[in-house]
Amino acid sequence: MTPRAVLTARGTGLALLGVLPLAFLVVFFAWPVVAIVGRGFTAGGVGAVLGDAATWRLAGFTVASAAASTVLAVLAGLPVAYLLARVRLPGVGLVRTLVLVPFVLPTVVVGLAFRTIWPDGGVLSLVLANAFFNVAVVARTVGGLWSQVDTRAAEAARALGASPWRAFRSVTLPALAPAISSAAAVVFLFCATSFGVVLILGGARYRTLETEIYLRTVDLLDLSGAAALSLVQFAAVVAALVVGAIARRRRDGAARVRSGVDGARRPRGGEWWVVAAAVAVVGLLLTPIVSLLVASVSTPDGWSLAGFRALAGTGVRGTLQVTGWEAASNSLRAATDATLLAMTIGVLASVVLVALRRAPGRLARGMGETMDAALMLPLGVSAVTVGFGYLVTLDALPGDLRTSPLLVPLAQALVIIPLVVRMVLPVLRAVDVRLRQAAATLGASPGRVWREIDLPLTLRSLVAAAGFGYVVALGEFGATSFLARPDAPTLPVAIAGLLSRPGELNNQMAYAACALLMVVTVLAVVLIDRFGAVRGRSAVGEF
Question: Which residue ranges traverse the bilayer (predicted)?
Fold first, then answer.
């Protein structure tokens, strides 16, 4: 076979591989979102909603609260990033695990944990809860770059008489700026689209664009208003993704000129204050978790496991249509299906993105960047919009998926796929291309090259990505709350149902269910950090 024929065959194979991820994105994301927004425009009234001052006050509150949470997350995450990247002390590995736990906790659990501290909710609790949820994004993203920054420039500044603070401000901080801005963009995206936390802590008093879209769609059936708000939210999401992509490109460029020498060491002098601040942040992160665990075994009559025993029932006067354990079983099945689907799509997409990045010509690289950005969009579009879009479109597919048990896993997979791509893609890019070329020269087919070269080198990251995706699916609440049938709720949906009805037993069941989700989350985080293939990073560090 001539070299030209080989290139043609490889291009054809690459195109075939890319069809499945793109087709999935079009059918199960773009089509439902466009359909629901289109119905809103058809119903009319979008102009009136966009011209209403209340809409922009709502948007202003969403942006302001998300920005405040982002600032807090960045300020809290920087000392932890320093601890993870530059400090060699016993227990740093444990901190690396603990700081990731809040990020993968279900939003319902986070909201309920903060409600045990602030029963009345309020703006402060919303801001703190969203910041709590995203400290790991800052710590892992900035820490990943900080560990690569050459320390000699800062040491030279110190030798010339600069104070530690001035050396950090003038040398280290500019080097970290791309990672900080990238992390801030991702945190802002997550905070601006937060649903479960706002629903539990904000209630009817404090609403964001996300919860208002839910209210207009589910309670008021105001599709035009929901469509208009979705457009406003989508514009904010695209802006955040653009900022993150630009910052990530700058970060990649900076990393190529840095030393790969490990600069971790024991702290000296004033550095101990930074370590103390990082430990204090980790302690604060654990406070809501411990508070919720205590609440799960506390009753007005003292310590009790009544909530856990009550999971065998359906709550006060049949609050749920199934028992708590059946809801947990539903969660496990849905998360398994979603993870298998997301791993298939995400790994295929990662393979295509690596090939496009290494292909000659600007067109291929541009296609790769566009595809990469498109795969991230489901993280920032309202889960309510996607869920309602499923209900109005998927009847057109064979078998009417609206009644299928796969409906919830499909929605959950949309959330997991970007995380899988961000976790697997950098590892695939790090595989030495010369190993693939040598195997191909010896006559190995592309499939065998993948089995013999790529799979062994990426296996650890694949296991970690599967564990990460599984726990995210297990706690997904936004789309699931809209799509899960009353007779087949997942555990987060059951928790929300228990909280919405009065009764001490319902509260105890909700707390107990949250405790179970936290145990699974912690086990998954340990798995992620044990099998993660990129030292000092996780999925949150690659957005």
Answer: 12-38, 58-85, 97-117, 123-142, 175-203, 223-247, 272-295, 338-356, 376-394, 406-428, 461-484, 509-528
Q: Are residues 124 and 195 in the same domain?
A: yes
- Nearest CA among 449, 50, 463, 406 for reference residue 224: 50
Give the 3-state DSSP-derived string for 13-66, with helices as H, strands as E and coil as C. Answer: HHHHHHHHHHHHHHHHHHHHHHHHHHHHHHHCCHHHHHCCHHHHHHHHHHHHHH
Q: What is the pLDDT of residues 292-318, one digit of tens each?
A: 888 888 887 788 888 888 888 888 878
* Listed residues 238, 266, 293: the one ending a domain: 293
Asked whether residue 504 is assigned to any structural domain, the reply reads yes
Count the Cβ atoms, other than its own, within 10 Å of residue 39.
17
| Residue 533 maps to a domain | yes
CA distance 491 to 326: 9
Which pLDDT value is given to residue 36? 77
The CB density around residue 196, as the number of other CB atoms within 10 Å, is: 27
- In this structure, the answer to whether residues 484 and 349 fall within a common structural domain is yes
Weakly modelled stretches of the chain, pLDDT under 50: 1-9, 253-261, 533-543
Q: What is the pTM of this model?
A: 0.77
For tokens 């890319």, the residue is: 18
Phi, psi angles (nearest 5°) of residue 338: -65, -40
CATH number at residue 353: 1.10.3720.10
Which residue range is the domain that position 368 belongs to? 1-34+307-543
Shared domain for 312 and 268, answered yes or no, is no
- Asked whether residue 218 is domain-assigned, the answer is no
Residues 112, 147 share a domain:
yes
d(CA 64, CA 115): 21
DSSP string, 64-85: HHHHHHHHHHHHHHHHHHHHHH
Same-domain check for residues 279 and 319: no
Nearest to 152 by CA among 269, 263, 264, 250: 263
pLDDT in tens, 155-189: 777 777 777 778 777 777 887 887 788 788 878 88
Q: Are residues 16 and 153 in the same domain?
A: no
> What is the pLDDT, as a whole number, of residue 224?
74
Least Cα distance to 193 among 35, 338, 69, 54 occurs for 69
Nearest partner of 229 among 63, 480, 37, 28, judged by Cα = 37
Same domain, 276 and 128: yes
The CA-based angle 260-262-263, given to 5 degrees, is 115
